[in-house]
Amino acid sequence: MAPLEPLEKVLVSKDFLSTPHGEIDCVTCHGGDSASTDKATAHAGFDPLPSVNNPKKACGDCHEEIVATAKDSLHATLSTFPLVLKSRANMKKWGHTEEARKNHCASCHTGCGGCHVSRPVFAQKGFVKGHLFQKRSDPINQCTACHGSRVGSEFYGQRGQGDVHAAKTAMDCVGCHKAKEMHAAVPKDLKGRYDLKEMARCTDCHQDLQYGSVRDHAIHVGKVQCQVCHSQTYVNCYSCHVGKNSEGMAFFQNQREAETLKIGLNYDPKAPGAGYRFMLVRHVPSDPNMFDFYGKDGFTNFGNVPTWKRASPHNIQRRTWQAANCNHCHGNRALFLSSSDLLDYEKQANQKVVVPDSKVPKRIAKTQKLVIDTSKVRTGLVVDAQWLHENLGKKNVVVVDARSRDAYDKGHIEGAISFDPMKSGFRTSGDAEKPFVLVDHKEVAATLGRAGLAADDHIIVYDQSGLTATALGAVLEWAGATHVSLLDGGIEGWHSAGFHKSTEPSVREARSFNGTAHPELVVDSDALAKLLGKPNVVVVDGRAIDRILGETKHEKATRPGRIPGSINLPLGALIMDNGVLKPPAELLWMLKTYGVTPDKTVITTCDTGLAAADTFFILRYLGFPDVRVHDEAWVNWSRDR
Amino acid sequence: MKRNSRFYTAAFACLLSIGMASVVLAEEQSGCITCHLDSAMLSKNLSGAKSKTSAMQSGSG
Description:
heterodimer, A: alpha/beta, Oxidized Rhodanese, domain 1, five-stranded parallel β-sheet, globular, B: mainly alpha, 67% helix
């Protein structure tokens, strides 16, 4: 979600004046002095958030019944936070903990306005549509403006494939989380949000599945949470720490994020609709020292509440890898939370959640075999940290750090050169007549040569997320490099494998790149238009689902939309957090569910060509013989067609 | 000549009524609306507005 300009935040639309809310004098809700034309005096006594600060007065006169409960809703009160904090707290130091809660945790709450007229406070406020009120919350500007890193990214496919409810039926958040739930008053001492009886559940729509035609539903419904079979990997956060920066502004920071999927034992089967034995668990960012900024030893009872908590990832798919075959789950110890997954400080907290070996479902002797041909995978296109460590310094092995120069200077793989493809001049600028397209091959080859790269080097690329390194890998292949590899897991993978980072910069002597261009790997929009509809051609759009739905657009595109007939496969489905790749068999299986198979000509596209280049590289790695990049991408397509 | 005079009278009345309506609208509009509908005035008043989030803030949930 792009931030709003200060003007956009407060500019009222003329249309607002002819709405019922527009007929109410501004000061009735906001206070201030409407007769004054001076900014300071006009805003004396002004309340920018009347629905937060006084919902009864601001909204209750007209919406009495709703406000009566909504003022005590989870969104308005975050009332479960104090209960959880108290369960863990050293009550002698509760003052520090409460101060931290108010300054940091409580900054996420919102009133009526944050869901019906403006972005919530946590998302930096600002009118969504010029102060026009809307009954249905805006999923981008409101719901995922706060529930963004996890829920929004999962739902729209910035992480993973996205959610089938968004991709197939264009459902928004309110499609499941209806007013009844959002406006529900929280009972006193509610343990957690899953204990709210009005909470949305899968079974609100998907009823009586155990009696349907799907065999696995008959076997598993009631024993495992729906998400165990229907979610993809999701992000887990570790070690939140709060503080205030040099300007006194409060912040919280997570020290680490990791994408996994873990099944735990249900530690709270009395929650409504949660009588199952197994459920997905997500690591929450709680940490015994997270409030140390306000005072030490605040959580002497940290072990009282799990840190691997029930999860409902918003990345539901009908078909998932763990459910593709019985033995992807049964007998797969790694999928179930074990004590070895726990950090020292959380062993006690998760005793009820860990699945002991004896409780991992046994492997099933006879299952239908899943046949996936991985024989064409070009394994050399991806190397791991161990391989790189063993081959560092060998002749022709060149390591390229594709992160920003700042990130490189803070620590990189020893001997790696810094080469940020985003600043390399490989592509035209966003303001060019034809933005974001590859420049002439000679220019690219000259730039690579100046960086000390030659086409016959073995070039290893890495970064933080995998996204720029993979795109660089694609450009190198187009430019004629004969042996390019991506470091799986990037710099995080290198570091977590136990290898050190260097701050000593490396530079290579300039040389001639000497690569033979491969123009056949790139198609322009005219060529793509001629290929559309051909039976053996598939266009893969690597953008997130909100782009496909037209809810958002790239700032340089003239309109939202998609190329006709393209298949949306968000890039997050192919590459996980920190640039980690899933096993080739899993990726090939997933691609097949989209109809993307190696026997087809695959053309990759996106907004600007970057995700298209990433997808190209990964498909080439998986052994697809005919992959091409539509580097003009949607930004240019939208302008020309 | 008579027709012209009628035409000018009608046109004058029309302009007068538009002018009156504008005055009435301006009187009805509060100072809040006058400013918050005017992007130029708002831009001027908002120059120098700063972000209120620390650069150290992690993403939301």
